[in-house]
Amino acid sequence: MRLYMIKRYVFFVLLMTTIILISVSLHGNIVTQNNSGTETGDMLIQHTDEKIIEDPNLKVFNDRRNTMINACSSNESYTVKNTEGTLRSHFVIDRNHKFIYCAMEKIGSTFWRRLFQIISGSSKKKSPFDIPPGAALGGHQETFKSLSFDDIHSALGSSKKFIIVRDPYARLYSGYMDKLFSANLMFWESIGKFGVEKFRDKPSNISKKCGHDLTFTEFIKYFIHSETYNKRRDGHFLPMYDHCRPCEIKYDIIAKMESMSKDTLSVLKILNMTELHDTLAQQFTEDTRDDSFIDQTKILFGSFARTKNCLSIYENQKRMWTKFKSRGLISKYAEFPFQESESVSLTKEKYIKALQQAVKESNDKVKSRQYRNDYLQDAFMSVPKDVLRRLHAILRTDCLIFGYDCDSHLWVKNAFH
C-alpha cells in the first residue's frame, strides 16, 4: 500500500510539472505584446481586426485571458488541495476540434456537458436541451481520467482550453440554494447535519437527525472550515482556482456565467459550429429557463418520499418556488399559488404551468437581474462581519484571477467598515 501511494504521488507531481511546463512553453509561443506591453493570447482566436468587428466578444475573451495571466504573474500565491483523480475528471476532450473544457459545478456545467456531447459528435442531438440533464455526464465523453500521461501532455499542448467562471459569491450562494436549501438528502446528510451540530447552539433533535434547515450563515461557516482544514470539501463549493488550475493551464477562452448565452454563441462561432450556433441563438434564454423548470420540478416531485420525515411536501414545494425566485426566473413578488391542502395532489404539470404563468406576469430582464441580486445581497448581509472577512480571504484569489470586483459588493464593503 505504501509503495502504491508513493507511485500515485510521483505521478501526480509529474502530471502537474508537465502542465506547468506546457503552459510556460505555450505561453512563450502564442503570446504577443501589444503597445502597452500587456500580454495578449491569440492561440485561440488567431484574431484579426475584421474578426473582432464581426464578433466584439473575441476582444472580451482576450481581455479576460490577460487578466488571468497578469493575476497569476503577480507575487501572490495560492495553495491547491484537489487530488489527481478529481482534477483529471474535470477535463473533457474533443479531439476533432482540439478543444478541452474544464467543467465546474454550479457554473453551467450541466448545460455545457450536454452541449459538449454535440460539439464532439458523441451525440447526434440537434440541441443540448434534447439531452436529459441527468445524462450530462454520459455520452462517452473522453476525459483526462482515461488518458495516459503522454496523451495529457499532447492534448494540453495542441488544444484550445476553455473554462466558464462565475462571481465566486454568487456561485457559493447558488450552491447553497441548490444543495442545502432545496431538498437534497445526500447533501443534508453529508453537510447539513455536520453544519448544524458544529455551528449551531443547541440544535433540535430533528435538525441533528436531518440537517434539512442549515442556515446560510452556518453554510458559510462550514465552507470556511472545509477550506481551512481541508475536510468535507465538495466540488460544488470548491474555489475555481483549485478546480481547474488557471495559473498552470492558461485557458484560451474564459466564458462567464453572467454572459453565458453571448459567450456560448461566440465559442460556437470559434469552433465553426454554425448550425448548432443558429439553433441555440433562436431562444437561448427561454429554452434554458424551461429546461430548468422541467428538470428541477422533476427532482422536486421525486424527493417527497425520501424527505417527508424531515420536510413536509408543502414546505418542499415552497422552497423550490423560492429557489426559482432567487435565480430571477420569476418575480420575487410572485406568491406561491397553492394551498397546503393541495400539496399532496399537486402534479408536476400543474407546478410547471404555475411557474410559466409567473414568468408571463413578470417577464422583465432588468427586473429579473435585480431580483437575483436582491436575494444574493440579502443572504450575505445576514452573515456576521467577522465571518465575511474570513470568507473574503478565501474567495479573493478567484476574484483577482477572473476579474471580479468583489470588493465592490455591499456586503464586503460593510464587513470591512
TrEMBL record:
Keywords: Carbohydrate metabolism, Glycoprotein, Golgi apparatus, Membrane, Signal-anchor, Transferase, Transmembrane, Transmembrane helix
Keyword presence, Transmembrane helix: yes
EC category name: transferase
Subcellular location: Golgi apparatus membrane
One Pfam family, short name: Sulfotransfer_2
Family: Belongs to the sulfotransferase 2 family.
Protein name: Carbohydrate sulfotransferase
Phylogenetic classification of the source organism: Eukaryota, Metazoa, Spiralia, Lophotrochozoa, Mollusca
